[in-house]
Amino acid sequence: MRGPMYQSILSTLLGVIVPLSVPVSIGAALARWKGFESKQLLTVVLYVLSPAIIFQTLTTANVSQTDVFQSLAFALINLVLMWGAAKAIGKIGRLPSEETAGLTLMATITNCVNYGLPLVLLAFGQLGLDKASVFVVAQMIMVNTIGIYIAARSRFSASMAVRAVFALPSIYAVVLAFILNTTGLQLPAGVSKGISMIAQAYSPIVLVALGAQMLGVKSAKLSADSRRTFWAGMALRMLVSPFLAWGILTLLGIEGMLKDVLIVEASMPVAVNSVILAERFDAAPKTVSTGILWSTLASFATLPVLIAIVKG
Length: 312
Hints:
Blueprint: H1 2-33, H2 39-60, H3 65-92, H4 97-108, H5 116-143, H6 146-153, H7 158-166, H8 170-183, H9 189-200, H10 202-216, H11 224-252, H12 256-266, H13 272-281, H14 285-311
Helix pairs in contact: 1-5, 1-10, 1-14, 2-5, 2-8, 2-9, 2-10, 3-4, 3-5, 3-11, 4-6, 4-11, 4-14, 5-12, 6-7, 6-13, 10-14, 11-12, 11-14, 13-14
């Protein structure tokens, strides 16, 4: 038993962590030696790459109706419970509104696309990747709707935060994909190919931005409130999330590969999208970026072990 588990952990490290580290390292090198700043790149992610990959995934995923409903139910319940936990901690700890918003982003938005999908493909093959697609799309939609609301709410009123959601194109990508899927209509071949090309750029571009962000937080000095937010976010993301996911899936009666895949996807480290939103809306970006750095580093050890456990 030990042999196969060790082999699974080692293959995940060599087959996924090492390849993913290449664009991350490039981003860090650009920031270190060329003074690269990721803000403009993050704008491209928010306004171009995110809507493209959401649309592409929604129009190409091949999963059963049962998987869709179960994955959406899990994604929604998981979001509500993690959001509630973060809000409760913020209230009990009397954290400033921007720190509470940052904590909520850390707790609810996982790096399930550019980090999670390669892990799932390696561990579970194409079938696992297909099963992960609904959760991934749900997470991306949440990032570009509820995530924006969470981040914007730290500075704006509820109505202004809602308007901020509809000011970005990702929500309209979801609407367009839904219309095409339900009507059977198709975009012109050239347009579809162009969107596909943009979507394929999502992971490497976001990973380059992640590398630049990870290097930038080395010199970040966190206030007392920010340190409390950071540790609370790390605990929620790295310790609470796997057990919570397992409990929700068990209560929903979800078994088999779908359960294994969803546990892994829900246990990803803090997503780079979190700091994109945190920077745009001033929702404790230093705290969130520090969480991205350390949760990502910690996940290099924890996720291969988690995969070996769920597969065992």
